[in-house]
Amino acid sequence: MDELKQDTRSTAVALSLDTLDQLPAGVGRPTYRRADLTPGIVHIGLGNFHRGHQAWYLHRLMQQGLAHDWAIIGAGVRPGDARMRDRLLAQDCLTTLIELDPAGISAEVIGSMIDFVPVEDGHAALIAAMSDPRIRIVSLTVTEGGYYLDATGALDMAHPDIVYDIAHPDTPRTAFGAMVAALRNRKQAGHAPFTGQSCDNLQGNGTILRQTLIGLARGIDAELADWIDSAGSFPNSMVDCIVPATGDAERRRALKLGIADTVPVTHENFRQWVIEDAFCQGRPDWDKVGATFTQDVHSFEAMKIRMLNAGHQILANAGEILGLPTIAACMSDAQIAPFFRKVQIDEIAPHVSAVPGITPEAYLDLITRRFSNPEIHDTTRRVAFDGSSRHAGFILPILRDALAAGATISGLALVEALWARMCHGTREDGSMIEANDPIWTDLVAAAERSRTEPIAWLQQTQIYGDLAQDEPFATAFAGWLSFIWENGARATLTEYLSRA
């Protein structure tokens, strides 16, 4: 439809279970009774992506009369999660999903989440919830940088949070410490472990979650670690849907549709979820509503992470330097869009294998259309956030493969140089880029040093490891960063695009 028929009343309907029948015509809503749902999943990290993706798939199953014993209990471990909890509980954990299709906007209210545990120091309520044998899956969206990995990809046992959790296993700081505490409770009570399901953009995300939990558990109780390793399961998965952050514009959009929702979610008209079928305590039949179960998640992960997630970094860093507000604006830029496509075709696609149903070239066309959707106000700032994790996870593995193969890396080196320039904290129009990374202060300092000594940027070994010693990459990077500072980003993009 062109757009939902606008509600003509002076005030929108305040979202709650009691007002579902008052929602404007055309807004989808649960057909199941929330009182009939029982919990089966605890999800840690109740941001927009989870509500627009995993919770939606479960809601779709519930609409078919299925999976009513798999309802979600929300959880979080950060101060911002407490604010989300208050807002969701005030509207009975309902969420308005607004699909932003260029052909027309539609909305539905989903109700697959039924509660949200208190967010507190020591995580007692979260541990208790995960200790309940009815909970058969604990899933997470805690961002790519939230798994305490060192530069080699191993668990950073020296990180203060990990050290603390090992010393205080009953009152941990981290989500992983809380999961280990709950698994210990289940073992002691004679209950089976839950499945740990990462839904973050990490290649081998289930394997990484297993590594984090078992490494932490081994520091506390070796026998517990062995039990988790042998009896638990950690399926790998690939998740995909562009879900912008919620702000006043998104709340106004919900109000325009006749719904007063303090935390609505806007999203594109595309979703994908590819999951390894490895669940130790059963699972919902998500494949009945469009998810794919397979034993070969790796190929799907590699295509998505290397082309979509790495592609986001190609766009966002250049866009921030040049003051472009959204990814769609970057895709309409006469230099950034061809820069994105050239790096993808020349330096990323050659290191990506086809998956059933789509080639890397066709996938590039798909994400080009998705990124260009003018209805999706996905900010360059959001996409550029936590570059220290995203470049390490999305860009550098491709770079290492290309170097090993003797392939061209000029465009990837330019991507890294643009990130270094962005982390200087200023745009080319002189405006400031606000702190946008957990280690922003360190990045700004390295960016300043690299203005006169480009190699200083690559000496951040926690990100680049030994790449500063790779002469072809270091030389290409230094050349591009010097060119950017001498001539500006626009002239640099022109220079790159002019090269065969």
From TrEMBL:
Every Mannitol dehydrogenase N-terminal domain range: 40-288
UniProt-recorded Gene Ontology molecular function terms: oxidoreductase activity, acting on the CH-OH group of donors, NAD or NADP as acceptor
Key words of the record: Oxidoreductase
SUPFAM superfamilies the record matches: 6-phosphogluconate dehydrogenase C-terminal domain-like (SSF48179), NAD(P)-binding Rossmann-fold domains (SSF51735)
Keyword Oxidoreductase recorded: yes
Pfam annotation, one family: Mannitol_dh
Keyword Oxidoreductase: yes
Domain of life: Bacteria
Residue runs in coiled coils: none
Mannitol dehydrogenase C-terminal domain residues: 296-478
The name this protein goes by in its record: Mannitol dehydrogenase family protein
Annotated source species: Marivita cryptomonadis
Upper lineage: Bacteria, Pseudomonadati, Pseudomonadota, Alphaproteobacteria, Rhodobacterales
